[in-house]
């Protein structure tokens, strides 16, 4: 029987316990504070360490994708004559990670056994997909079944998120400086999402955190109603709110599984501390 191996990158923000349990291989992206200070996301820099470093330094770091060579090494280490790889990655509109993985596949995959997927999502909106596909692979499902479920998840997974400060989005070019300043002054909270192409966009705006969170839930109810769902809540130094939201969502939706996780250093560099996000996928 063909063994299906699942690869993703560190921006999926999957809890370490799930990575280990499901045998997922995670390729780290890089976080750079200065020429002398660079880290591998989730390897040499944890989420907690990252936010402490940002707070202490006042620096909003830059990020970069793995090289094709890194992916080649990973793929070669996983492949044998009875295996295939499903490699699911951060939106190609947000990073060159998918491109690096694709270049690596083209260099070594003569038998077309590596399937590189652009999730068109970020953070645990990728993770929720990766975890469900990994569960199927661990159950011994066929490659066709795993890829079919993957396509369903790519269609059925949605995410809304809210940032605490617009400074990080502004620095990384997601919104203009004037919009960031005005939003902060007026306590306007953009309800953000990812488009079908995988780009961050402002879905709508709300005045204050409470109204924004309520509206996020309304939007998800419009999409999922009473359907059974998988739930992911991910946050940047905002665990108390994440736990409160999880409890509320489990009361209001037919939740089949739920995960609360921290937003790692790479995505955190773009959204900043205080961010709260909700992803849902049809079960």
UniProtKB/TrEMBL annotation:
Superkingdom of origin: Bacteria
Pfam family, one: DegV
InterPro entries per UniProt: DegV, DegV_C, DegV_domain_contain
UniProt GO molecular function: lipid binding
The entry's keywords: Lipid-binding
Record protein name field: DegV family protein with EDD domain
